[in-house]
Amino acid sequence: MEQSILERTKADYKVADISLADFGRKEISIAEKEMPGLMAIREKYAPQKPLAGVRITGSLHMTIQTAVLIETLTDLGASVRWASCNIFSTQDHAAAAIAKDGISVFAWKGESLEDYWRCTYRAISHLEGKGPQLVVDDGGDATLLIHKGYELEEGSDWAKTKSENKEEQVIKDLLLEIHRENPYRWHEIVKDWRGVSEETTTGVHRLYKMHQENRLLVPAINVNDSVTKSKFDNLYGCRHSLVDGLNRAMDVMLAGKVAVVCGYGDVGKGCAQSLRGQGARVVITEVDPINALQY
Amino acid sequence: MQRMKDQAIVANIGHFDNEIQVDALNAAKGVKKTNIKPQVDKYTFPDGHEIFLLAEGRLVNLGCATGHPSFVMSNSFSNQVLAQLDLWKNRDTYKVGVYVLPKKLDEEVARLHLQKIGVKLTRLSERQADYLGVPVDGPFKSENYRY
Lengths: 295, 147
Known about the structure:
The complex is a heterodimer. Chain A is an alpha/beta fold.
């Protein structure tokens, strides 16, 4: 898509097809019935609006379920901007429904890498040149972009070094472009930033590493290692959605096939159960003796 | 990947696409890539055998399907909202660092989901709780417990 994603459009959102909003809304209302935790939190906190006016940026798969999360945050008073955290993970009808409700969302299924990082930047860029006060991150991309931008302004030469892959170069190009326009942009963004909560294993690794290197700018909550996250989402979630992905992609009979699962952590366990449930003969590879000994 | 069986399916369910050498596969000499449909590609090797790569090596459950179901995500996202509330409420006292939510909140998130699946929790008597050395209302496990 065009470069203009950096410019503010009147609508202040970018989705694949806004006409999918009604379909999205119908599926969101089904999801609300299946998400009692979020709905209970709404009921308990919405009257007090504990997040009144708080600017939140989310970088997390823009799905129907995430729409329920976003609307919980807005019910609690927050002013939310959102991007997906993967180029393929957006459900376009979910993004459309959220956009139609007036939330600034920048996400569609099948973004280019350039679009993806520009969407992340637009989700970070709240009104009047301000940045987020809180970030909901998944994989740590929003946190990474802010830190790398801030470090560039502090004199880091990372953006000018050779990249290991295409995506790294895309990030650097964006940072240098923003830097040419406004060499203090990221300091402005960071000024009111008070914290980040991180959804997944990979992002949590990044946070601990940044903290060890004294680079972390704000307090972070590791949501991944809540028991009701990693022992449920990673395990039961993958058990449900792995075969769903395989079936929709290939529609091939899994029973009788040999399936190799690399790694037997929470995700690997869920995947192995998922494939075993379909009758596949499952083989695990592991490096950790404890996981390798588990059933 | 070259040595995989004919018609093998390769997919990744980790967060990033760096767990599969997609760039190397695309650049490999004599390997032909055929797109079947969005997020499904067939690779044909010089000897004629074929493998399928899903979602270009990105997470298959969200690339090829719609990710985790709502009920499980309600748990994850309840933790997210409680984390956001906590970060904001205690913004003046939090120091830079990486934290986890207290076990009490973890138990609370679980509690919020039990009614939906028809679970009625048993409640400890004071005597039982004393014997176990836990409060009647939790937390029920030590910080080291691994579930």
